[in-house]
Write a structure and sequence with these properties.
about 15% helix, 2 helices, alpha/beta, 60s Ribosomal Protein L30, Chain: A, globular, about 180 residues, six-stranded mixed β-sheet
């Protein structure tokens, strides 16, 4: 039986086991699923805010921020045995679910996450981001498959990490909703 790991806002969870890692109710938050398909080590960060946490933020509150959460995610994955140059990522969330015309937090989160991953040389292979529908994302660590939902939809395959060697460097499968 697979262990189920639920990731809440501002949390980072990593597994190298027979586990399902998931997060739901992604509005403006962005979930980063990172995976090393060779070592079958995966992780999920549920990011609420762009940039780096203020120095005054300590403890788990700092992991609500993109830079802090992604740094922790990659650090723990490497500690579990992942190789940084084998890690790839997929993204979900970053939606303006309240349909506020001047609300930019969703766009700021997406930009910050992408910039932070680019600085760490982690390629993004698939995205289900933007628009105005809430999302969820699930990683089956053993199988290397990542699924997502939007609104009340059924689960759909976002990315199969085991196919990674067949993907040319620099390509991204985009599932972006306008």
């Amino acid at each position: 039986m697979k262990q189920e790991i639920n990731v809440h806002t501002g949390e980072v969870r990593i597994s190298g086991n027979n586990a399902i890692i998931r997060t739901s109710a992604l509005g403006s938050c962005v979930a980063v699923v990172a995976y090393d398909s060779f070592h079958k080590i995966g992780g999920l960060a549920h990011i609420m805010l762009p940039g780096q946490s203020p120095k005054s933020q300590t403890g788990n509150n700092q992991f609500k921020y993109a830079e802090n959460a992604i740094a922790l995610q990659l650090q723990i994955m490497v500690e579990y045995g992942a190789k940084i140059d084998r890690i790839i990522a997929v993204l979900a969330g970053g939606a303006n679910v309240l349909n506020k015309p001047n609300d930019t937090i969703c766009e700021d989160n997406i930009y910050s996450v992408k910039q932070t991953l680019a600085q760490a040389n982690i390629p993004v292979r698939a995205e289900a981001i933007g628009a105005n529908l809430r999302r969820s994302i699930t990683l089956d660590v053993k199988e290397g498959c990542c699924y997502y939902t939007e609104g009340s939809s059924r689960e759909m395959l976002l990315w199969n990490f085991s196919e990674e060697p067949q993907i040319p460097a620099g390509e991204t499968k985009e599932v972006i909703f306008e």
